[in-house]
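F.,

This is the one I mentioned.
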């Protein structure tokens, strides 16, 4: 018994689609990382800060990467290796893009996948016990922002608004945020986070009801973490 050509073609096409789906899933094409800007501000004993700076200088000035890799001298795995650990045991999806030692504060800027790479900050502290690492994460694609700088010593921003009218705006405190939202919505509001969020939502609904389909106003805040 022969299958009609159209039915046979449909069966073969479905098999092809299933195979391609399995291949793409196995290669994790659906989990491509988003870019995160991670910044460290390292403070502590002058000698230990200088030692950490020297390790990063060693990475940068080496004729070849400390650990053979595809990402170059400033790959985070190289730093993990110089700190005396096995990079295979750490998440090293990123690289150092800038570093500066000034007034005994070592700034280390990185481009990482999704978030700060887990464990590296703690490894620095294990190697150099006096060093305190303040970090900030800024992922503008996933709109995720976090810091352990709860007192705002180096990371002063606490809130963000991304709107069609004003673009991306940063605010250091609830007072300046509430003032901006009051001006945008032409309604006086208190310096209260719940009220700010409710006012933005109500104003967005109002603009949509008035037929302004191009208007948007998204609110984000830094997550304070350990």
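My design for it:
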């Amino acid at each position: 018994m022969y299958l009609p050509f159209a039915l046979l073609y449909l069966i073969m096409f479905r098999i092809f689609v299933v195979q391609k789906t399995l291949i793409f899933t196995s290669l994790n094409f659906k989990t491509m990382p988003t870019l995160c800007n991670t910044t460290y501000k390292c403070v502590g004993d002058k000698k230990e800060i200088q030692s950490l700076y020297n390790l990063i200088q060693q990475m940068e000035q080496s004729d070849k990467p400390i650990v053979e890799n595809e990402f170059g001298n400033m790959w985070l795995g190289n730093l993990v290796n110089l700190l005396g650990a096995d990079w295979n045991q750490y998440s090293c999806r990123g690289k150092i893009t800038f570093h500066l030692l000034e007034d005994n504060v070592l700034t280390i800027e990185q481009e990482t996948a999704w978030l700060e790479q887990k464990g590296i900050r703690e490894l620095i502290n294990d190697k150099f016990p006096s060093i305190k690492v303040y970090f900030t994460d800024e992922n503008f694609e996933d709109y995720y922002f976090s810091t352990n700088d709860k007192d705002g010593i180096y990371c002063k921003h606490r809130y963000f608004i991304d709107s069609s009218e004003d673009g991306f705006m940063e605010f250091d405190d609830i007072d300046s945020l509430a003032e901006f939202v009051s001006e945008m919505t032409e309604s006086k509001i208190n310096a209260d986070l719940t009220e700010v969020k409710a006012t933005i939502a109500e104003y967005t609904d109002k603009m949509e009801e008035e037929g302004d389909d191009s208007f948007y106003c998204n609110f984000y805040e830094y997550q304070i973490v350990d």
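Residues 5-26 form the longest helix (22 residues).

Talk soon.
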